[in-house]
Amino acid sequence: MKKKVISKKRRKAGPGKVALKSTVTRSPKSTEMKHLSWDTVEVEALSPLFHRQLIVGKEIMLARILLKKGCLVPWHSHVNEQVSSIFGGALKFWIDGKEIVVGPGQVLTIPPNMPHKAEALEDTLAIDIFSPPRADWINKTDSYLRK
Amino acid sequence: MKKKVISKKRRKAGPGKVALKSTVTRSPKSTEMKHLSWDTVEVEALSPLFHRQLIVGKEIMLARILLKKGCLVPWHSHVNEQVSSIFGGALKFWIDGKEIVVGPGQVLTIPPNMPHKAEALEDTLAIDIFSPPRADWINKTDSYLRK
């Protein structure tokens, strides 16, 4: 029964891989100029291992994420393009048939709809960029991360 | 005569402000996953004061820029949304009727078509994000920066 409910909300992207729906907002998008400091942007704790801050523009969203060692992001995909920049620590990705460890000073570009999972090998600071902005992150409907 | 040639290539965004044309590519866009290190991305010297590296995705472009103190970016605008993150130094913007100094740990979001100019108050390291990617930066037709 539980599986049936989940299947209504998500499409499968392959064995064990979830293609997330509702990741693009249809509501009016910000067109204001904003000057912000990460120090004053709300920090959201999705789990004890996953903390996140968001800066949302019109077509660009920045997510500053702090992952504790051992944090697992399960298999998923989304229509939003993603570019992950690592500033500290190490984040291991399973993507496109490969295992890739992304470290400080490195960048991973993830095309739309490409399934991926990740694990923090160390405490990790990253900035993930999405286009368009991730509606599920803005609306806090990203239950796959809140376990 | 020179002015006439320039006026064919650019539209004015207001007194002394240039609305850049040809900043969006019509060519096929990258949909590959890429794992890159800034250490190995080509560094382009636009002037003695302005060095730049590019990582280009489908709808997201990252430009890592190193501006020497005193570097001036003249008034311009573009249809591409811009988000500037500062990692070292200080970059002063004239934008939306305001003068704003953006420092380390700070972010400025610039909506599409909003005229702005900038000056590096110190040697500055920034990552500018554009969506869609800046065709004039990719094609090196950004003559307004090469003075």
What do these coordinates show?
The structure is a homodimer of 147-residue chains. Chain A has 147 residues and is mainly beta. Chain A has one domain (2-145): Jelly Rolls (Sandwich), CATH 2.60.120. The first copy, chain A, is built from 2 helices and 13 strands, in the order H-E-E-E-E-E-E-E-E-E-E-E-E-E-H. Chain A has helices spanning 2-9, 135-138; strands at 11-14, 17-19, 34-37, 44-47, 50-56, 61-67, 72-77, 81-88, 91-95, 98-102, 106-110, 116-120, 124-131. In chain A, the strands form 2 sheets. Chain A has a 6-stranded mixed sheet. In chain A, strands 4-5-6-13-8-11 form a 6-stranded antiparallel sheet, with no helix packed on it. The longest helix of chain A has 8 residues, at 2-9. The first copy, chain A, starts with a helix and ends in a 9-residue tail after the last helix. At the A-B interface, strand 3, strand 8, strand 11 and strand 13 of A face strand 3, strand 8, strand 11 and strand 13 of B.
At the fold tier of CATH, the topology name of chain A is Jelly Rolls
Largest interface: A-B, 36 and 36 residues
* Residue share in helix of chain A: under 10%
The geometry of chain A reads as: globular
Number of helices of chain A: 2
| CATH architectural category of chain A | Sandwich
- The name of the CATH superfamily of chain A reads Jelly Rolls
Strand order of the largest sheet of chain A: 1-2-7-12-9-10
Q: What attributes does this structure have?
A:
8% helix, homodimer, globular, 6-stranded antiparallel sheet, Jelly Rolls, mainly beta, 6-stranded mixed sheet, 147 residues, 2 helices
